Amino acid sequence: MTTSSLLNPSVAELAQHVAEGLRKTPKALSSMYFYDDAGSRLFQQIMDLPEYYPTRAEFAIFREHGAALAAALSPGAGQAFSLVELGAGDGAKTKLLLRELLAAGTEFTYAPVDISSGAMAGLVDTLRRELPALRVAPVVEDYATALTQLRTWPGSKAVLFLGSNIGNFGPNERLNFLRQLAAPLAPADRLLIGFDLQKDPRRIRAAYDDAQGVTAAFNLNLLTRLNRELGADFDLAHWQHYTDYSPLTGAVRSFLVSTRAQQVRFAALDETVAFAAWEVIHTENSYKFTPAQIEALAAEAGLLVVQTFTDAAGDFADVVLAAQPD
């Protein structure tokens, strides 16, 4: 019996991903594994940082256009629907929309989806206290599982994917993901997706490398998670966070950098991985978009842009999409 066969399914999946990712050139790990409970808490701190404009911009959209967003997502007068949010986090922005829907007397169920059970428990508790009339059906799953379930979700639905999370996918993954979202949509169903728009490159880069070092701690927490869950022995004193932004591709790229030649043992994998001095692990992409790129991407995925909402500065767009008619 191997060590990996004793792992629970979620840890086994992480172990397989790490084993494959650290054999790549360059080495790479998915940003989805940032979000253990500690990572989710750190990301909440990031959203409050002065450099991190996306959260403030999207909040502004929800405050200014909340009623219009609620109307754009509702299937029609008197029709009940499910409001499904992928990657719900603390639901802070979504509460503005939920209040608009409740105030309008809309019949709906809120189904937040998040990979972090800790974040989900906190969200559900908060919603029960702040919005006791709200019907909540929490789902603790990753995106892939949630998308599979979405195909069998009964009745009309509106799916939220906020916070510029769509930018974390590479071009091919992004297109495939949107096609998966489009596939189960009925004509009255809607998507609401947040897109961070291209702007001053200096502002973008600063948002991912803040002066307080919270983003660095968020990136490095991935190594702490691997130490805990896979029995790795990363020494965080010999790793650092680095990020860059290319206006040509619209991509912010984040890395963990090995500051010396070192070897890391993974007990759960029964493997030792060597890192050269200044070798990197690519941990995240965060793409920024133009309105024309959003239109083209939607069309290629089988979606139609119904309405676009932006903040006053034009930093961010929340885009309502529907399936293209047959």
Automatic annotation (TrEMBL):
SUPFAM superfamilies: S-adenosyl-L-methionine-dependent methyltransferases. One of its GO terms (molecular function) is L-histidine N(alpha)-methyltransferase activity. Keywords: Methyltransferase, Transferase. InterPro entries: EgtD, EgtD_Methyltrsf_superfamily, MeTrfase_dom, MeTrfase_EgtD-like, SAM-dependent_MTases_sf. It comes from the Bacteria. NCBIfam families: egtD_ergothio. This is L-histidine N(Alpha)-methyltransferase. The lineage of its organism: Bacteria, Pseudomonadati, Bacteroidota, Cytophagia, Cytophagales.
